Amino acid sequence: MRIVRIVALGLGLALGAAAAPAMAHGPAEMGDDGLHKTDWIHSDTFKDLREDLAAANAEGKRFAIIVEQRGCVYCNKMHRDVFPEESVHSYIHDHFYFIQLNMFGDVEVTDFDGEVLSEKAAARKWGLLFTPTIMYFPEQVPEGQSAAQAAVSIVPGAFGKYTTRHMMEWVVQHGYEGDEPFQKYHARRLKEEGVN
To answer: Distance (Å, rounded) from C-alpha 84 to C-alpha 166?
Structure first.
């Protein structure tokens, strides 16, 4: 299985930022922990990734983790300009089950391989360096794999609405199992949508 890792450093927002997006919802509220709180993040889980994956499968959705940190300007940009955009917001609601982790948090997380560790220790274990980072997972994770090993795509940094939605589509359609890499899928979808 191929894993797509997009290195962004937050520079991908230029695409799709020129046109004013049709916002379905206002920006996310800020929680006491300094992280954005949305209606699509499942905040009531025990952060046991095996249980969260099972819950996503029970709802017929794909499981994803968004890792953020207090004061992250790129997280703020995504929650202000990308996630509220109608096509992105509705796609998340229809197809994904997200949980949120704090890159420097102390809440216990149980990785797919059974290891129990803090959010910050999990972020280190998985090699995460940027926020936001979105990790997308298959419907089934092989025994003994960590989240980083199991992910079908790990997207560090901020991107525009088209890149974000197209990545979600590619994951839902199992593009990572096919012959069309994400970059070619994205270029084709931009052309189909008439985006220059």
So the answer is: 16
CB of 65 closer than 8 Å to CB of 147:
yes
- What percentage of residues in the chain have a pLDDT greater than 70? 86
pTM here?
0.87
Instruction: Dig out the tokens for 14 from the structure.
Output: 């230029």
| CA 74 – CA 61 distance, rounded (Å) | 26
| Mean pLDDT, rounded, for 119-124 | 98
pLDDT band at 28 (very low <50, low <70, confident <90, very high): confident
Domain ranges of the chain: 4-192
Mean pLDDT of the chain: 89
Superfamily name and number for 4-192 = Glutaredoxin (3.40.30.10)
The torsion angles phi and psi of 120, rounded to 5 degrees, stand at -65, -35
Q: Which residues contact 7 (CB under 8 A, 6 or more apart)?
A: 156, 157
Residue type at 11 in one-letter notation? L
* Radius of gyration, alpha carbons of the chain: 16
Measure the CA–CA gap between 2 and 102, rounded to whole angstroms.
27
